[in-house]
Amino acid sequence: xxxMLQVQGITKRFGGLTAVDDLSFDVPRxxxxxxxxxxxxxxxxxxxxxxxxxxxxxxxxxxxxxxxxGLSPHRIARRGVARTFQLVKVLxxxxxxxxVVAALAFRQDRLWGxxxxxxxxxxxxxxxxxxxxxxPVGSLTYIDQKRVELARALAAKPRLLLLDEWLAGLNPSExxxxxxxxxxxxxxxxxxxxxEHVMQAVRAICTRCVVMxxxxxxxxxxxxxxxxxxxxxxxYLGTADV
Length: 242
Fold this sequence. Notes:
By secondary structure, the chain is of the alpha/beta class. It has 9 helices and 10 strands. Helix 3 packs parallel to helix 5 (142-154).
């Protein structure tokens, strides 16, 4: 099994606060892996460092053998990292298709005009929005706006897809759709690192989990073993979720 991402001794300090403390883990190529922990444990900070939104205070981040530590977000994106956010970030004045077209204009093999529109429609179909490209984003449901955001991330042809609580706020039927969608991307060979609180989704999607507590690593291993770890139960999950 080869490795897509290596996090090596990463630390992030904000003044006197250490948000991530000497964290190390690997993300296997072609698999889905969960980054778990309580709110405030440092998960999103870690995602922000991987995607380049903030710079680490120490340590290294290696993507497919290339050191990307501290690079700007656009340079990391060009190397094959795409992400979604806790709060949906779409372009509200555009329709679904043009939200994706906007992303296609910035990837390495840029697309324009009809080629971009056709590719956008293909990506929208991939996430379950076939034939809905002309719909204003503001008229879409919450999960469909999330799908647009995901299609826009896929437009970058990512080698590594970062999903930050992408399944949050979905009702049970939407959650099942979302789980199947992410599992489908994994099954197509995409490497996925997701921050998630929905244990049903973690069990269904992820082969491995890393658990953080107060910025530190407390567990790393296969999903079933990690979620049954007494230290994880005490620190995060609670007996009702296990």
